[in-house]
Amino acid sequence: MKDATTWEKVDEYVTERVIPFDGVMEKVLSNNRQAELPDIAVSPAQGKWLNVIVQIKGAKRILELGTLGGYSTIWMARAMGTDGRLITLELDPHHAETAKANIAVAGLEDRVDIRVGNALEQLEQLSKEETEPFDLIFIDADKPNNPNYLRWALHFSRPGTVIIVDNVIRDGEVIDHHSTDPRVHGVRKFFDILSTELRLTGTALQTVGSKGYDGFYIGVVVSAD
Ligand SMILES: C[S@@+](CC[C@H](N)C(=O)[O-])C[C@H]1O[C@@H](n2cnc3c(N)ncnc32)[C@H](O)[C@@H]1O
Q: DSSP letter string over the chain?
């Protein structure tokens, strides 16, 4: 069986071949390090994967929960074209400030709206604004709230909306029903909801790479009610 060192080396091998050198992304990652943000952004290969999904979907309206330094935000926003709009929600003002600067580095400030505050409150506010449904929603904030975020994601969806959720495998801990980790609980509850949720069809894929062993859920909304 291959180990984490191999996963990292393979990630590097693939990244070198499918992602041309990108000065903007290098700068964004170095800004994140300088700002001492936690090293929990998606990997380059995962960011590119999100970018490709946005292109396949032709998404023009994107909602992201959990901005950090805007790394995944930039990967997605770049793919939606100049007429796209992305709203990203972030609790921590320091993360949001860093993301704001990074989004300016990427020249995307006219398309990306960072909203600072608790995502649940921000989602409530968004609902009051009677915002149009989104084409794609990426959930990557605090994991204990994944069940709530899934409910909100469905609220902001229409048939065809793509919903992606990061970190749903958690080093395999997702199958540990004795786990006391609230993040694992959040993910398990999220899967319980999925098991009876008829408005959404999707799957989860386990991933290994520079970010260890984890996985993404990806689904598409098939009916509004
Ligand atoms: C995994 S990081 C996001 C990574 C980012 N999507 C990327 O790949 O570049 C999770 C982010 O969610 C934020 N967060 C945590 N709890 C939150 C909440 N209740 N509301 C909004 N954001 C929250 C954290 O501050 C952190 O920046």
A: ---HHHHHHHHHHHHHHHS---HHHHHHHHHHHHTT--S-SPPHHHHHHHHHHHHHHT--EEEEE--TTSHHHHHHHHHS-TT-EEEEEES-HHHHHHHHHHHHHTT-TTTEEEEES-HHHHHHHHHHTTPPPPSEEEE-S-GGGHHHHHHHHHHT--TT-EEEEE-SSGGGGGG-TT---HHHHHHHHHHHHHTT-TTEEEEEEEEEETTEEEEEEEEEE----
Residue nearest atom 7 in ligand 1 by C-alpha distance: 41
Of 218, 225, 222, whose CA–CA distance to 159 is shortest?
Answer: 222
What is the C-alpha radius of gyration for the chain, rounded to an integer number of angstroms? 17
Residue 53 is which amino acid? I
CA gap 107, 103 in Å, rounded: 6
Cα 90 to ligand 1 centre (Å): 6
pTM to 2 decimal places: 0.97
Give tens-digit pLDDT for 127-175: 999 889 999 999 999 999 999 999 999 999 999 999 999 999 999 999 9
- Edge to edge, what strands does the sheet with 212-221 contain? 112-116, 85-90, 61-65, 136-139, 162-166, 212-221, 200-209
For ligand 1, the distance from its centroid to the CA atom of residue 139, given in whole angstroms, is: 9
